[in-house]
Amino acid sequence: MNLEHLIAAGEDKKVYRDGDFIIKVFEKNYDKAMVLNEALNNARVENIGLNVPTLEGVEMVDGKWSIIYQNVEGKTISDLLKENPDREEELMGRFVDIQLEVLGKSAPLLTSLTEKLQKRISASGLEATTRYDLHCRLDSMKKHTKVCHGDFYPTNVIITPDDKAYILDWNHATQGNGAADVAETYISLYLNGRPGRAELYLKLYCQKSDTAKQYVQKWIPIVAAAHLSRPNLTEEARSLLRSWADVVDYQ
User: Fold this and answer.
1) Which end of the chain has less neighbouring CB within 10 Å, N or C?
2) What SS3 state is found at 21?
């Protein structure tokens, strides 16, 4: 296995290309269960007919857990947006169409989104009264079994030269209410310095899915609180998330 061609690097993993394969190598202190869960999630969504890179194997590489995927040639929607700023609405519309295809699927063996959010709200660091309100709000939301990617972002969708879309990185996948996954994407776009794109995305999603904007907005405090459990947030991001989470009704 050739690890000479590094294509991406993060705090806890590095990604290499080796011919027809992509090798994601995790740091030694990375939780083995999370590595295996990511591989399992990918296998589960392969089985329901979504276009995802094929899981080729899970191995130890230099004492580190690694996942091997099919290499999909193409450009991410993020790359296409950078290259074609005048096509933002068109490309974000395509992005929403792909998400709607994902949300139209069901994979009963995936983790419950509601359970995951409840745990993250508990670990958010918010005061008890706010946590209680958010737990109650989440418990009252409609329970669905839609496939939720959990990190549906333009960097995680590749468009091939023959215009086929592939969806990457299924480590956060769950089953639950699709509006929560939309709130996740909206918040991620906003936190990454794209508030205008976040609003465009939400508008396009609501139009294409015939969903009331207010319905998605009811999820924003819940998902914002869940984000607060993540490490390494900037103070600016933490402040914004708290402002969204620490309210009874999203404005």
Assistant:
1) C
2) strand
